[in-house]
Amino acid sequence: MTRWWSGEELAAEAERLVPGSVSKISATACIFKAENLVQVLSALRDNPATNFAHLSNLCGVDQWDRFEVVYHLQSLEMNQIACAKVEVQDREEPSVPSVVSIWQGAWIQESETYDLFGIRFEGHPNLQRILLWDGYPGYPLRKDFLSMPGGLQPGLNEFAGTSAKPEPPVRPVE
Amino acid sequence: MSEIVQSEPFVMNIGPQHPSTHGVFRVKATVDGEQVVDAEMVIGYLHRSMEKLAEERTYTQNIPFTDRTDYLSSMSNNLGYCLAVEKLAGIDVPPRGQAIRVIMAELQRLASHCMGAGAFANDTGAWQTPIMWFMREREKILDIFELTSGARLTCNYMRIGGVAFEIPEDFEEQVRALIGPMRETIADGEGLLSGNEIFLVRARNVAVIPPELAINASLSGPMLRGSGIAWDIRKADPYCGYEQYDFEIPIGYQGDAYDRFIVRLEEMRQSLRIIEQALDGLPGGPHSTEVPLSLRPPAGEAYARIESPRGELGYYLVSDEGPSPYRFHIRPPSLINLSVLKEMTVGGSIADAIVALGSIDIVVGEIDR
Amino acid sequence: MEGAGVQIAFWVLSVLTLVAAGGVMASRNLLHAVLFLIVTFIGVAGFFVLLSAEFIAMAQIVIYVGAISVLILFAIVLTPQSVRDNSETAMVGPAILLGIALSTIFLFVIHDTAWPTTNGTPALSASALGQALLSTWVLPFEIASVLLTAALVGAIMLVRSETEENEDVADVDA
Amino acid sequence: MSLATDHWYDFRDLSNLSRVILEGIDKVAPYELAYIVAPIIGFVAAFVIFVLPSQLYVGVYGERRIIGRIQARRGPNRVGPFGLLQPVADAIKLLQKEALTPKVADKALMWAAPVFFVAPCVLLFAVIPFGPRMVFADVPAGLIFFIGVSGLPVLAAFIAGWSSNNKYSLFGAMRIVAMSVSYEVPLVLMLLCVVVFTNSMSLPAIVEFQRETDLWLIFMQPLAFVVYFIAVSAELNRTPTDIAEAESEIVAGYLTEYSGMRWGLFYGMDIGYALAAAAFASTIFLGGWSMWGLEQWVPPWLIFIAKTHLFYLVFIWTRGTLPRLRVDQLMGFAWKFLLPLAVVNLFLVSLERLWWLEAGLGDGMVFAFAGINIVFSAVAIFLWARFLGYRPESIPTRPRLVQKAGGYVPVEDPPGGGK
Lengths: 174, 369, 174, 419
Fold this sequence. Notes:
- The complex is a heterotetramer of chains A (174), B (369), C (174) and D (419).
- With 174 residues, chain A is of the alpha/beta class.
- Helices cover 19% and strands 25% of the residues of chain A.
- In chain A, strands 1, 2, 3, 4, 5 and 6 form a six-stranded mixed β-sheet that branches. Chain A has a two-stranded parallel ribbon with strand order 7-8.
- Chain C is mainly alpha-helical and 174 residues long.
- Chain C has two domains: 1-87, Up-down Bundle (Four Helix Bundle (Hemerythrin (Met), subunit A)); 125-174.
- Chain C is built from seven helices and no strands.
- The mean pLDDT of chain C is 80.
- By secondary structure, chain D is mainly α.
- Chain D has two domains: 1-96, no CATH class; 107-390, no CATH class.
- Chain D has helices at 14-28, 33-70, 86-96, 107-124, 142-150, 152-163, 167-198, 203-213, 217-220, 222-235, 247-250, 260-284, 300-321, 327-359, 365-387, and one strand at residues 400-402.
- The model of chain D has no long low-confidence stretch (mean pLDDT 82).
- Chains in contact: A-B, A-D, B-C, B-D, C-D.
- β6 (249-251) of chain B pairs antiparallel with β1 (400-402) of chain D, so a sheet runs across the interface.
């Protein structure tokens, strides 16, 4: 069975390798500081105890006040997986160091995250929109991409038909 | 003297409409004569923004979307998504549901590999014959899917907590009737291609991926196993009770297109073994747990992955206790396997590039989502 | 050969050959010129047939249409676009002079040659030709072979790339 | 072969019938009318005995049916009984379709290319002996004629590819020219072996040689037959070597921009050239119209057409079975494999012929030569392939199997050492 690392375990290992790299710890993930992200991730890859040579997954999450970039690191030899995160507060020009230098497999996922979230990955060799065309207005996976009239946001807050209030009319977005 | 006779590199578009791109996928290949000197992929022709759409629908409503990502293996996609939601909400699946899921996922792997191996043979120029043989078997599998779920391609069969319906009465009989002919067809395809001198020179030592690169580039599935890396999530991180079944991981020798092809064929044999074992030990009981229709998983995140026919298919879900996922991310194996496209194609000829692309076994619906 | 059919064939072939030959000179597109040249070759082969020299006619088609024109096509396709087409050139004056001189010589030769006519069909069979080549004309035949071999080797030397040469040097050293 | 009668109802030689018709016309009408009637007779005869059964029913319908059979599907079976009217339906469909010309194409050349492609195909059949006296033009050097004329469609295909102004088409055009240049060499050398052995360049004489010795040249020159088959399928773009039209790589090669009946002409004439090559092969290697005395009882032209169709079936079979070679591998195969074998074979054949002539041996000697040549061909092919590094047994056809997931599993026994 794969060993799923908890946030604390990963944080402890990362602190041992690169002191001062951890910013926050959650139950499932360890949140690193952006400034030494590349350093700690490459240390985690090369360290024989962690050996996270395979970047399983990379994606972004829009948490309204911040963007998270989620990395699922995997070791094929040790059969273990851990979740690392990095947070960006800046919504105008979000920027995260790129990990393409550590894992080549990151470039396509970073491009996709840039395309859909607008997070710039510093050091990415060829950062451009891959799914949408150049000049597409906005970044679709941001939560404020389709702000509806009346300040409503996309996503269900309640199940259809259970609301006491009448549903607001949906008009095309300007 | 070579500067007297020289050729100018020019850009050749392979795709979006091309017989060998398996969908609307485009490779901008810079070629010098017949040699590819640069290759760049252009994707997004089939982008439907599923990750955004999923944020506005309930967890159950999202299952049909997953059908339409990798339309050649909808059962696997259903399964991956349902596993992620179950992990997020802490739902257990009864043993019968798990066994049915395993049978369905393995049948889907067979169907998908039939298409993948056949299309690869087509790309090497074995004009239609292997793919037709494999398609004949695939049709039988799709018939079983139709019998069970009512649909052939977009099955929408898995549900959170189990499967949608009980399997029909003659299901087991039909699946058992399929196994023998399928074995024969695999052996036929192997006899037609694996020892064929032309096929060998076309596929061997073409698009070689060394194991270091395969791991570093996050490859998965037959791409990873072809390079000689023993990695199969069904073994490494068993889900749906895969640990009960006896099967082996096929791995290649040097990571070329030929290795990926023979790995796919062997995987089909192993899938047949799993199906036989699952049918033999099909437990009774309910096929799924009762899950409230208005499912509101606790806040948190979950990443679940399965071994889909194309590799590691992951679903990353974030919940904010709402009725719909706060974030819905698919880790598409086809897209990430494409990250070595340049390494595979540059330096070879156009014909090799086609073989390389065919050996990835891409599905554009999954790449673009 | 006598008869109206032969007369008609002669005039048709003449018009075809001459028009095509004019096309070779007049066409701006070099590829069109080559295609006109092929038509000219075929017309000449037709003349050989009219002269009851079927073997020569077939040799004409095999060698000129099948081999030489393909060679010219290769040469054109492998030439960079800029110098390919039959554009204006500063050599128009000398070319006209040369043309006039050549036509003068041809007209002179045609005028001065006594054209003997014969009624019997000439015995120009393939076996007679072979006998002649390998007995009377054996020395020119062999010299031509050596010349062609030299040309072949020279052509191979011309198109070798530098990497191939380096490989060969390495082979010799090893 | 001496035919028993010259009566018009002796269908063993159809020239009797046409001669009787022409003589009848001569009696009642002016002499010049024969010039008009003769081509009509020839056209009808060619259509009924060759074009209809071969071009339409073996080439279009049969190929699709047989390939369908190979591919576990039905093939055309809707139009008419057993789908027999499918070629007609195809032709009607193609005639209705618009023949598109791209804006940037060289319009004149694009229009002319199908015409150039069709004409030589008709010429090719002029020298093929369908029966003892059934040959349109008995040219003394019919073999050279065939080689020369069969080189012309390559130019037409080049024109088609170039004038389309499409990169795929240009690739197809360059590939077909390069391939034709490469494969003409072993092809001609091997036919030279045949010429040396039979001491003739006339196709009826070669058939006569095989009839007299009661042994087909496929047994006397097996290597020549194999090389001829490979080379001609390369020149004709049949599947193991169809790199000029490689559907999965360059879409349709030089035909990418063609549509409608212009494409139909190329398609039909592709079949026509394959049939011509099959007819030529049955003439040269399979004994032509002779069949060990059977030609006295069965019309020889039927024997000949049956052999042609049989040879064409091999084309269909390979098309339904084999993958396609890469262009550089194909060229390398011609120059490295076929050419040395051809030269060695030519040397051997010349020695045999010289010995035969000098020692004044009888016709029975051909059986000894056949034995020698069959053994030589097998040994030469095997040894030369081994010398060039052909080691099929060293290549694993099954992957390794492991029980436990983990990292990289090194290969203990490196397979093959590469090829």
